[in-house]
Amino acid sequence: MKTGAQHINKQIEDPSTGEMILINACTREVIRAFPTMKEKYDIEYPDYTPEPNALNDLLPLLKDKNITIVLGTWCGDSREQLPHFLKTIDSSSFAEENITFICVDRAKETEDELLNDLNIDRVPTFIIYHNREELGRIIEKPTISIEEDMVLILSKN
Predict the structure, then answer these.
(1) Taking a C-beta distance cutoff of 8 angstroms, is the pair 109, 64 a contact?
(2) DSSP conformational letter for 136
(3) Nearest of 107, 144, 132 to residue 122 by alpha carbon
(4) Are residues 74 and 43 in contact, defined by beta-carbon separation less than 8 angstroms?
(5) Sign of torsion, CA 113 103 123 17?
């Protein structure tokens, strides 16, 4: 992903609510500390325990994969699911440099062209790639759990 430094971790005012939101490419640290995310993150991350068998299955399947996460700091599902995803990833030793975080406004758009061809309807959307080919995605909420849904996606490919 290429983006100018001025676009990373950009905060704007949501015109419909007056609330500050993040938009464009963002870092984990800024998302986690952003006031609307931090409150839920501080509860969800420590309380979430990834399913151990799924985690064991997931570790080898993540090799050479990249994940793009499209989320809204204004979105309740993003606030709940991102900490679960991050706890799973942290428990699997997946390299964080293989994760791209993209924050969107309520129209599910960015200011630059980060979402071209991603077809984002709902957030959060977790898209798993191998060699730039999409293997699958988890949209809004997992069917079973983040880790078990990822195993299902990666086991099919």
Answers:
(1) no
(2) E
(3) 107
(4) no
(5) negative
Strand-pair category, 133-139 with 125-130? antiparallel
- The helix-helix angle for 76-92 and 52-61 (nearest 10°) equals 70
- pLDDT on residue 6: 53
What are the sequence ranges of the domains in the chain? 18-156
Cα–Cα distance measured from residue 150 to residue 99, given in angstroms and rounded to the nearest whole number: 14
CB 138 within 8 A of CB 125: yes
Q: Could you tell me if 72 and 103 are in contact, meaning their C-beta atoms sit under 8 angstroms apart? A: yes
The structure's pTM equals 0.93
Question: Are residues 71 and 123 in contact, defined by beta-carbon separation less than 8 angstroms?
Answer: yes
DSSP string, 65-96: EEEEEEE-TT-HHHHHHHHHHHHHHHHHT--G
Please tell me the CATH code under which domain 18-156 is placed: 3.40.30.10
Tens of pLDDT along the chain (157 residues) come to 444 445 799 999 998 899 999 999 999 999 999 999 999 999 999 999 999 999 999 999 999 999 999 999 999 999 999 999 999 999 998 999 999 999 999 999 999 888 988 999 999 999 999 999 999 999 999 999 999 999 999 999 7
User: Is residue 34 within 8 Å of 19, Cβ to Cβ?
Assistant: no
